[in-house]
Amino acid sequence: MMPKVGVVPRTVACVLPGARTGPARIGPPNPCFDLIVDPRRLLIFRAVAHAGSLAGAARALGWSQPAVSQHVRRLEKDLGVPLVVRAGRGVQLTEAGVLLLTHVEVIAARLAAASEDLAAIGQLRGGRVHVVAFPSACATLVPAAFARLTREHPQLDLRLTEAEPPQAIAMVDRGEADLGLIFHYPGEESLPAELSAQTLVGDPVFVIMAADHPAAGKGVELVDLSGERWVAGCPRCRSHLVHACRAAGFDPDIRHSTDDYVVVQELVAAGLGVAALPGLALRAVSHPGVRAARTAGLRSRTVALLVRQDLAEVPAVKTTMSALSDLT
């Protein structure tokens, strides 16, 4: 039994390099070979071949028999060869028709595969989402969100790259990543026009000191630490620390610089200085040899999710954004 043929799509575009836009070109792109074929007619011809008759193809397609017959005749005219001949109440493929059918089957299979792939993305059975995030978000927010997405949508292709906010903003703006997790301090909210930002959570900044520090476990003002040696973080965090200390009336004595929050805590635990660390960094790693304290002099940073405006409604991207939002 011949397989049943599905509904023919209303519009199919096929363009080869060097060819003008429009119906498919049969053969190599050669100005002297100007044979143009409407892909719809190829699929109608396939329906006729599968059904074994014009009437059967018309029923399968939901068209009238004269309409099917007209498309087949026009295809034969375009190609310059007969494709079917009458055989009793049905039709039989000519040698040219048999040859053409082998090519049309390939075209039909590729169209079906394309339709399935697009449906998979639209129904969240597939799709790729690339997230770029700052280190402490990579260690806390992203793994939980990715684990949930993997359970609920196992066909999603999730990718993660670690980068500080300036690099993350650039990557999302250039289309190298779909989503960016960034943080900013007050006054740093400027973004490229094509990006939109969704605030996720406020991330408080703590002063950390060695567990045996005299001020450990007590309320502390930033000015009380004016005589301490400091460990500073990434350039933006360092700038925030310097600005806060100057507002408190002193310049911090920065002896060590590292954007690795594990190293920061190790240095502090060893008694080599005090530091300012955000809550997400302490949530990712909490060294038993340090103590954290809030101080009014250090303002919270804001964690935000970036997306290009033209990607915000893509199903896979939208669902990933929702997962990240729900877990903050």
Account of the protein in words:
With 328 residues, this protein is an alpha/beta fold. The chain is built from 11 helices and 14 strands. The chain has helices at residues 39-51, 54-61, 65-79, 95-122, 135-139, 141-152, 165-173, 235-247, 261-269, 279-284, 315-326; strands at 24-25, 36-37, 84-87, 90-93, 128-133, 157-162, 179-184, 195-203, 205-210, 229-232, 253-257, 274-278, 290-293, 301-308. The chain has a 5-stranded mixed beta sheet with strand order 6-5-7-14-8, with helices on both faces. Strands 11-10-12-9-13 form a 5-stranded mixed beta sheet. Strands 1-2 form a two-stranded antiparallel ribbon. Helix 1 packs across helix 3 (65-79), helix 1 crosses helix 4 (95-122) and helix 2 (54-61) packs across helix 3. The longest helix has 28 residues, at 95-122.
Query: Which CATH C-level class of the largest domain is it?
Result: Mainly Alpha
Major pleated sheet: 5 strands, mixed
Tell me the distance between the termini: 57 Å
Gyration radius, in Å: 32 Å
Can you list the strand order of the major beta sheet?
6-5-7-14-8
Q: How many strand elements?
A: 14
Share of residues in helices: 25-40%
Helix-strand topology string: EEHHHEEHEHHEHEEEEHEHEHEEH
Overall structural class, as computed from helix and strand content, comes to alpha/beta
- Specify the overall morphology: rod-shaped
What is the arithmetic mean of pLDDT? 84
Strand content: 15-25%
Low-confidence stretches: 1-33
Please give the CATH architecture of the largest domain: Orthogonal Bundle
Tally of separate helices: 11
Oligomer classification? single chain
The CATH superfamily of the largest domain bears the name Winged helix-like DNA-binding domain superfamily/Winged helix DNA-binding domain
